User: Fold Melanophilin from Ovis aries.
Amino acid sequence: GLKGKIKKENSKRELLSDTVHLNNTPCAHCLQPYRLLETPKRQSLECHLFTCRGCSHPHPEEQGWLCDPCHLARVVKMGSLEWYYGHVRARFKRFGSAQ
Assistant:
């Protein structure tokens, strides 16, 4: 499913981020080389890898870009309300404990 696809993309991203020289040559997602005017580099706000226009989404709230895997992960996280429960857990971590 969708979570499996995200897990696969995360492992691909980890592998690519370990190879520093790839940040300077092709798109980290589709591996196409950058052309100065046609496909400018865009750095993902989440993973900080560089992607092309076709592999990124604008993120106006943070005034930047998200690569496809990071965008998909955020959509799933928002849809599952995981972000909300994580925030509530962190906020009320000690509530009810004997400290």
Summary: Residues 17 and 49 are 7 Å apart (CA to CA). The chain has one domain: 2-91. The radius of gyration is 17 Å.
